[in-house]
Specification:
Elements lengths: L14 H12 L5 E4 L7 E7 L2 E7 L5 H14 L9 E5 L6 E5 L4 E2 H4 L5 H19 L8 E3 L10 H19 L8 H15 L4 E3 L8 E3 L5 E4 L5 E4 L2 H14 L6 H8 L5 H17 L3 E2 L2 E2 L4 H17 L2
Antiparallel strand pairs: 1-2, 2-3, 3-5, 4-5, 6-9, 7-11, 8-11, 9-10, 12-13
Pfam families: APH (PF01636)
Protein name: Aminoglycoside phosphotransferase family protein
Length: 319
């Protein structure tokens, strides 16, 4: 049971919503809730009640299906050895669908990356790679792209997935007006060059957002696990490592983190990998001026100039 249904139109989730949920589920009358600021799909809250600590993820009514599919995916991934939080309560049939899960010890990798030693970073990168290898044991799909189930992946080829991402970025850039639309031209040209290789890639399932966020690291520098897995991507597993490389370039971080990840998975850093990094930098540019689920992407001229220079540098250095 997830609680009685209401005939009123559900509101946007708030701290009061979360406190009502944990009061009903656990009898916690004196809990404290704080929203995480990084959520782009769901409303995610850190909840404390004395020594107890849980995470509550809440969606809007039209997200109930995707939240339930995400839970079903977690239940397929966990037996394979993917280190995800344990599910404590399934409220996906509530007016505002929710899930309560254990709070992994620690914080996002990005918050502690600069304080870690090189051996600690290597161990974390290898743990992420192991999670990717475990995810691949689900088996390949027949179609490509982002989905909780292989049969729901929407694209015919991996190249079609990349083309859709570039198209989304170029449309956002044109709409936001903070970068010249022509900045996408060299990325598009590089895409056309690599298109035959992209279309030949198999639909391997991988965790697409194990970047400097969603990878949780304890105070000791130990890898704790992975959070916010709502779906997978079917295609080239290097895509997640390239996203992480782009994030480290754009937002700061050590350059030695990606190599042990790719080495553990026996994956190359070639021209296609460099192209992925450039495509993600273009995507970061496209997010400037946008608001996601109440969390806005900061933008200022210095940051925009730095991203544009990084894009040029990555493209110029690509093999």
């Amino acid at each position: 049971m997830s609680g009685p249904k209401s005939t009123a139109t559900p509101a946007i989730p708030t701290e009061a919503t979360v406190l009502a949920i944990v009061r009903e589920r656990f009898g916690w009358n004196t809990a404290e809730a704080r929203r995480f600021t990084t959520g782009m799909a769901f409303y995610v809250y850190d909840v404390l009640h004395g020594p107890d600590n849980v995470v509550v993820r809440i969606g809007l009514p039209n997200q109930a299906g995707s939240m339930a599919e995400g839970l079903a995916l977690w239940r397929r991934l966990t037996p394979l050895g993917v280190p995800l939080p344990a599910i404590l309560a399934d409220g996906t049939d509530a007016d505002l669908p929710y899930v309560i899960m254990t709070r992994l010890e620690g914080t996002d990798l990005g918050h502690v990356m600069m304080s870690l030693t090189a051996p600690q970073r290597t161990a974390i990168a290898q743990s992420v790679a192991d999670a990717q290898l475990a995810t691949a044991r689900l088996g390949p799909g027949q179609t490509f792209g982002f989905a909780a189930r292989p049969e729901a992946a929407p694209h015919r080829t991996w190249g079609d997935v990349i083309a859709a991402g570039i198209d989304r970025s170029t449309r956002r850039i044109a709409a936001n007006g903070l970068f010249p639309p022509s900045i996408a031209a060299p990325v598009i040209a590089r895409f056309e060059h690599h298109r035959p290789a992209l279309d030949a890639i198999a639909a391997t399932p991988f965790l697409h957002d194990t970047t400097t966020k969603n990878v949780i690291v304890a105070d000791t520098g130990r890898f704790s696990g992975i959070v916010d897995v709502d779906d997978l991507c079917f295609g080239d597993p290097r895509y997640a490592a390239a996203l992480t490389r782009a994030a480290l370039l754009a937002f700061g971080g050590p350059a030695d983190y990606i190599e042990p990840w790719l080495a553990r998975m026996h994956l190359p850093q070639d021209g296609v990998f460099s192209f992925y990094v450039a495509e993600f930098l273009l995507n970061f540019m496209s997010e400037h001026g946008m608001v996601f689920n109440g969390n806005s992407a900061p933008s200022d001229p210095a940051t925009r100039n730095r991203l544009a220079a990084l894009l040029t540098r990555v493209l110029d250095a690509a093999p």
